[in-house]
Amino acid sequence: MSDDAINPPGPWYKQFWLWFILAIPGITIVWCIFMITVAVSTQGAMVNDDYYKEGLGINMELARDRLAADLGLAGTVRFDNQSIRMDLEEAGQPANFEFLVLNMAHPTLAEQDRRIQLQRVDEGVYEARLPTALEGRWYLELRGPSNDWRLKGQAALPASMQLQLLPAQQG
Questions:
Q1: Which residues contact 131 (CB under 8 A, 6 or more apart)?
Q2: Using CA atoms, how far apart are residues 130 and 100, in angstroms rounded to an integer?
Q3: pLDDT tens, 83-118?
Q4: Model pTM greater than 0.90?
Q5: Using CA atoms, how far apart are residues 32 and 40, in angstroms rounded to an integer?
Q6: Within a 10 A sphere around the Cβ of 144, how many other Cβ atoms?
Q7: Is 4 exposed, middle or buried (0-12, 13-18, 19+ CB in 10 A)?
């Protein structure tokens, strides 16, 4: 006589291997539901929806960099608590624009990005006030009133020294 005839197997719901095999697809289904829920409920702030338009705009941005280099634009910016002071030169002379626009982009949090208008207070000197002091790393982009040139730089705030803004290097 065989052992099965002596000890008949128990009911199907008491079999270990049945539950082990069923657990694998069950866990997979639960994990998929969790991942779909996370994907639907969170926004991908790092992914840009209009990447094609931005790709087309790259050539315009490169033209702005070239114009800034051709004009000999260079600037230094100083952040003092809640104020910004910008010194801008054009071909070695103080640059006189009506105002300047400073775009400050946070590397990872787009909701913290800022656009600040700097007012001319003297020959080649521009200033603005901030509502709060800034901290952390920022990408800086300075543009003129006609938006036909730009200077770029980076800042780790609070910074105790002046930061340089220059035309982006191409090539």
A1: 82
A2: 15
A3: 999 999 999 899 889 999 999 999 998 888 999 999
A4: no
A5: 12
A6: 22
A7: exposed
